[in-house]
């Protein structure tokens, strides 16, 4: 699959679950066995912040979530502080629990493979990681294989990340029904404005600003205006 076809197909899809067949195409064209793309909010330990696109055995995926492996996944740990792709056999693993995750994945198509981190703009704290694997232990183990496949793996990871970010943004806008005025208010909150400063810009009163934030917090399901601003910023909506 070329990258232009990939982009066109992702543009037509609406949810991460729908994108799994695109990832299956990745796997086939890449000469791999399985792949998982994970996107998450850095620093958020809850499963709710995670989005998965799967082209892997459901047993592996079910076990991963039931055991909360996303909290200790060495692929995610690496992606949190790195931008360069890495071979699985070169992946740092600090604990036996992390080794257990990789060893278990090896039984389901990840005996060798690549880990490809991807990060967005400064306005979003959402990151992603593409884990591409082969059931053949030597398939992606050498530096030569890595360097040959690295550019296209990175492009594919970036496209999947952009798709996830667009899905999160669309879902948030649809569920919260945010208006242009709402986004302006949240943008000022992100930029450090106090209620009195916002009131001057909007030609209203601080009390009216506070009332609007109470409504916004309720729409977004959060407790504070800072949480509201952070939530929308993480979706990449605030520019």
Instruction: Please state how the strands of the largest beta sheet are arranged side by side.
Output: 2-1-5-4-3
Rg, nearest Å: 20 Å
- What share of the residues does DSSP label as strand, in percent? 5-15%
**Beta strands, count:** 5
Q: What class do helices, strands and sheet pairing give?
A: alpha+beta
Distance between the termini: 32 Å
Main beta sheet: 5 strands, antiparallel
Coarse morphology: elongated
User: Average pLDDT, to the nearest integer?
Assistant: 88
Descriptive notes:
The chain has about 240 residues and is α+β, with helices and mostly antiparallel strands. Helices cover about 55% and strands about 15% of the residues. It contains 10 helices and 5 strands, in the order H-H-E-E-H-H-E-H-E-E-H-H-H-H-H. The protein has helices spanning about 5-10, 20-30, 60-65, 75-80, 95-105, 145-175, 180-190, 195-200, 205-220, 225-235; strands at about 35-40, 50-55, 85, 110-120, 125-135. A 5-stranded antiparallel sheet has the order 2-1-5-4-3, with helices on both faces. Strand 4 and strand 5 (about 125-135) form a beta hairpin. Helix 1 (about 5-10) packs parallel to helix 6 and helix 7 crosses helix 10 (about 225-235). The chain is elongated, with a radius of gyration of 20 Å. The mean pLDDT is about 90.
Question: What would you say about this model in short?
Answer:
The chain is of the alpha+beta class and 239 residues long. Helices cover 53% and strands 13% of the residues.
């Amino acid at each position: 699959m070329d990258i232009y076809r990939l982009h066109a197909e992702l543009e037509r899809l609406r949810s991460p679950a729908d994108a799994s067949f695109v990832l299956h195409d990745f796997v086939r064209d890449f000469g791999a066995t399985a792949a998982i793309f994970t996107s998450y909010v850095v620093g958020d330990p809850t499963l709710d912040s995670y989005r998965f696109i799967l082209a892997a055995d459901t047993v592996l995926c079910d076990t991963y979530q039931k055991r909360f492996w996303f909290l200790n996944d060495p692929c995610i740990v690496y992606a949190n502080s790195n931008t360069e792709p890495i071979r699985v056999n070169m992946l740092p693993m600090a604990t036996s629990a992390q080794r257990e995750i990789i060893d278990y994945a090896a039984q389901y198509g990840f005996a060798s493979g690549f880990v490809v981190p991807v990060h967005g703009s400064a306005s979003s704290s959402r990151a992603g990681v593409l884990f591409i694997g082969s059931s053949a232990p030597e398939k992606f183990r050498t530096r030569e294989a890595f360097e040959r496949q690295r550019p296209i793996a990175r492009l594919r990871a970036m496209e999947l990340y952009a798709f996830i970010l667009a899905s999160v943004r669309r879902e948030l806008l649809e569920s919260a029904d945010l208006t242009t005025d709402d986004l302006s208010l949240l943008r000022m909150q992100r930029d450090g404005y106090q209620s009195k400063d916002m009131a001057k810009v909007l030609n209203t009163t601080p009390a009216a600003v506070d009332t609007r934030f109470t409504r916004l917090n309720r729409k977004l399901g959060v407790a504070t205006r800072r949480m509201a601003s952070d939530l929308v910023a993480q979706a990449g909506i605030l520019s």
